[in-house]
Amino acid sequence: LYFLPAVGMMVLALIFSPVSASASKEDAGKFVDNLAKEALETIGKKELSKEEKQKRLQKLFSAHVDIDWIAKFVLGKNWRTAAPEQQEKYLDNYRSFLLKNYTSNFENFTDSSYEVIKTAEGSKEGEYTVGMLLKRSGQEDIAVDYRLRQDGKNFKVIDIIAEGISLLTSQ
Predict the structure, then answer these.
(1) Using an 8 Å Cβ cutoff, are 102 and 12 in contact?
(2) Burial bucket for residue 47 (CB in 10 Å: 0-12, 13-18, 19+)
(3) Per-block average pLDDT, block size 10, for the chain (171 residues)?
(4) Cα atoms in the 13 Å half-sphere on the side-chain side of 41
(5) Cβ-proximal residues to 149 (8 Å cutoff; 6+ apart), any chain
(6) Cα distance between residue 35 and residue 32, in whole Å
(7) Which of 45, 100, 136, 139 has the largest count of CB atoms under 10 Å?
(8) Measured between alpha carbons, how far is 89 from 51 in angstroms, rounded to an integer?
(9) Could you tell me which residues come within 8 angstroms of residue 26 by beta carbon, excluding any fewer than 6 positions away?
């Protein structure tokens, strides 16, 4: 579990990548490939301060991870019974928690590379799973699966599964 927040930062790099109205698993694979490139580029920029790197990674994470959907899923049936003010406060707090938790360990990946190893269609139309090996110098590779959902002409990450541990179920 110690690596889950660090792996989450790889998601941060989900760059705007238009996809056709009916995306394919290849589109999903390209999207995740772009995510990894952008994350590692941001992390590797020596001219940026730690704070600026984290700010940029948080912005990317916010734009391309369906944080509100994840927050509602995590709360489960209690979401429906919460008052609107409670829902808004919960979403604000959950967003802050997830952003801080998943962008704080990026320094651990300054000497990393990756390989997209599989792409598959999900159980629902418009959903895909993309598998990646995150390669860290002098350490074992980490297997990461990204569950994506097509969102209009783009994708949104709806789950990150690192070494079999799901963001959704661990929350």
Answers:
(1) yes
(2) exposed
(3) 46 40 80 87 88 89 90 94 96 93 75 90 93 89 93 88 87 75
(4) 11
(5) 66, 122, 126, 127, 155, 156, 158
(6) 5
(7) 136
(8) 25
(9) 119
